[in-house]
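ERR on first pass: missing label on line 2. Operator R.T. fixed the label and resubmitted. Corrected input:
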Amino acid sequence: MKISYRNAVHDAIRGALHDDSRVLLMGEDVGRYGGTYAVTKGLLAEFGPDRVRDTPLSELGFVGAAIGAALGGLRPIVEIMTVNFSLLALDQIVNTAAALRHMSGGQFSVPVVIRIATGAGRQLAAQHSHSLEPWYAHIPGIKVVAPATVEDAYGMLGTALADPDPVVIFEHVALYNSSAELDSLAPTDIARAVVRRAGSDATIITYGGCLPKALDAAEQLSAAGVDCEVVDLRVLRPLDLDTIIGSIHKTHRVVVVDEAWRSGSLAAEVSARIVEEAFFDLDAPVVRVCSAEVPIPYSRHLEQAALPQSAQVVAAVRNLFGERS
Amino acid sequence: MTEFRMPTLGSDMDEGTLNEWLVKPGDAVTRGQVVAVVETAKAAVEVECWQDGTVGELLVRVGETVQVGTPLATLLEPGETAAAQPLTPDRRTASPEPPSAAAPELRLHPARDRRRRWVSPAARRLAESTGVDIEAIRGSGPQGAVTISDVQHAAPTETREPAVGDRAEQLRRAIGAAMSRSKREIPHYYLADEVVLENALAWLSRRNAQRPITERLLPTVLQLKAVALAARRFGEFNGFWRDGSFQAETAVHIGVAIALRGGGLVAPALHDVGDKSLDDLMGELTDLVARARAGSLRSSEMSDPTITVTNLGDRGVGMVFGVIYPPQVALVGFGRPAPRVCAVDGGIRIATTVQATLAADHRASDGHRGALFLAAINELLQQPDLLEG
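pass 2 clean. output:
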């Protein structure tokens, strides 16, 4: 059956609410409006206002409340409308959720799941379009995941809820309308990167909203005789280095694609790890394809020009081959 | 700001190893000043600077081997300050990212002259494990780097480069390369002329009789001066064949072939031979031979010769047919001076004679002119007073 990313997230939340009475959903417009991205449509009617709660426009307040609920034994799922707004809740996430297990000597854990919409491509301008997940990936004490496929959109949520510590899930806004033909949906891990396409000539490492672009680039390159492996990081913290390094052992060339800005990005971290761990396997410099270092523009052509595109990935991979490109 | 580059110290030189810096950043240097010592296949050579200025930055470290033409240091011209420009030409100033994301993201620095050979880490490891000589491989990868593919397509080398210390072997190879090129590219023609030395030797013994041994002249000096004066009149023998045409030189710098004790030879320049007194030439020749054998020649001495003179007389041969040292176009040889039967002034006499020979590049001159050139040398050697000035 054909399942959309949006429906996969919906079904995962619905299943969790159904299976575990400790689970509740909270966030701006998740109830009566059905979610800004229509992910939570119908859940208020099905599970009632105690378990599907519309919150005031105060990320600091409702994320803090969810952390308190988690400390008190519930399993809250918090939706934050966009990663830009999540900055208001950073104090709760970084100073409280991520720190409490460590500061309490292991006495408290915070089993909260925070879903954050991220990324650009829908003409929502600079205050709703950024990719700040690398900031979260900097923080010890939380897990950061980025489901890029329909399977993971469904499968990661349940696994995240089962985790005793805070998990932040980044859902790229451009992916909600994507879909896949699947027989069934099942839980997936939140520990490993996955090779989405096997190849032998070069590795394209990416995550989230850039995965379809990377796969598209790999298809184009394949037609030109360059066989690319595409690695979907899936988990931004902690990084699954084994999969990354394993691929580079095979291909010796790597392009890292990240919708975040290059400076201080996850792409920067991945590049540094590769140079640390696989320097002697490299046959070409590590290359990154990232967003232009500007606040994401509103105008469609400027927005598209600012974002990594598959044509740039193709060009970057070809450049890795020097005269053979 | 200019760059001071690794000079070519002979047509057989592709690269040199920097042995020693004799200046440091901030030092004022003058044209002709010896600023560094460079190790070539032939010798350790003192390298001179070609202009006045102040040393900006030393770009090559001691011990580094670089290609001819590689910038060794930056030089600030008089009045120029270091702050006026970045010290390193390739060091880019920070600039905002271009707004267009359409350009390929691979922002590689432009290829630079000054760099060690680029070899990808994986290619270097592979080359080491398979015994491939990485220096012998042309890089085809990004920025011209040697890649795994380049190493895989290169055959493992049987013999390694000789160790740096193996000067004799390197010298042999260098001579081999230069002489092979000469015989491959230069259409030599050869002429010989017998020069009666009676006048010259008589003149020399009179002159030397009045002097202490250390100030006495050797016949070689007369020969060198005679060749220089003749070469001035016959310009097509003095200069270089480059890029398909002959470039005449006004100055006559004679490359003097000097046999080295460990085998092999070098032919460093005596500068402006035509303008110098015989005494000066004798002093300079003595110094040049000593320094050639000590391995401390200067860069200009290696690259400047416009014509070569070889004298194998003291080795006992009657005549020498030389091989031209490219890109020069002529070589004058002298054999052993010896008493020989000859016709002088209509009578048969025993006279001391020497066979002067010319090996010349037929692209630059013809035998007719070559004969006149040799005759002019002969004539000059008959009138030693003309050589004194």
